[in-house]
Design a protein that fits this description.
By secondary structure, this protein is α/β, with parallel strands linked by helices. Helix 2 packs across helix 3 (35-56), helix 3 (35-56) runs parallel beside helix 4 and helix 4 runs parallel beside helix 5 (114-126). The protein contains 9 helices and 6 strands. A 6-stranded parallel beta sheet has the order 3-4-2-1-5-6, with helices on both faces. Helix 5 links the parallel strand 3 and strand 4. The two termini are 22 Å apart. The protein has one domain (13-232): Decaprenyl diphosphate synthase-like (Undecaprenyl pyrophosphate synthetase, 3-Layer(aba) Sandwich), CATH 3.40.1180.10. It binds farnesyl diphosphate. The site of farnesyl diphosphate (FPP) has 20 residues, from helix 2, helix 3, strand 2 and helix 4.
Amino acid sequence: MDNSLAEAGIDLLPTHVAIIMDGNGRWAEERKKPRLFGHKAGVDSVKNTVETAREIGIRHLTLYAFSTENWRRPTLEVKGLMSLLKTYLKKELANLQKNDIRLCCLGQREKLPDDVRKVLEKVIDETAGNTTMTLNLALSYGSRDEMLLSIKEIASRCVAGDIDPNSIDEKIFEDYLYTSGQPDPDLMIRTSGEQRLSNFMLWQLSYAELYFTDTKWPDFRRDQFFHALRTYSNRQRRFGKTGAQLRQE
Ligand code: FPP
């Protein structure tokens, strides 16, 4: 752990941080600007957060960028978001390579417009060998949808005789989630004051510490991130055990 973290009162770093980036629209409305103005500012927060996470040694960062429900937004907003995403991916590839960051996608990438999907897959392929940090972008992602997909896949393997139904356990179920092979988030941050999970990583967040802040996503920078990490560092995760048991371990 580096000195700047200790100085900031952070002595325990989460391995995996997941973030619901919320409040772009309200941030723009407060400034009498169109919602897309907020999303554009949100991209700067994405860059800043990825950079900070990589610098301080977080191994997995998941950003909820577009939910299965977000397709219901006005066409212009959806188009604007897709265009921001494509530009971000094209511009960031070099940075991801330089910083040894692997990009993964959680969600129904086949639902994305062809041009966005192609750029996304190029970045995923080219960064596949990077090992310092994994950046998961949740795109057209819904947790219930993800779990149903896993169940369907496992059911068809049972029918084919490849899996014995009695052998199904948490590990097998997780093998069919988008996050297969990755640890569960230790910390979930949601910005903008809303306090709900909105169909985000419902299985994976079972034991995560939850942190809610009133800060809207476009204002979320290193200081706010550090505040969340400090709060996490001061919490005691018991995983069902008592405090006394943990002190003896
Ligand atoms: C929630 O704010 C934010 C989104 C639905 C999209 C998040 C997208 C970005 C930060 C930019 C593009 C992403 C990447 C990875 C380049 P909201 O619109 O729901 O805000 P509101 O609740 O105030 O209306």
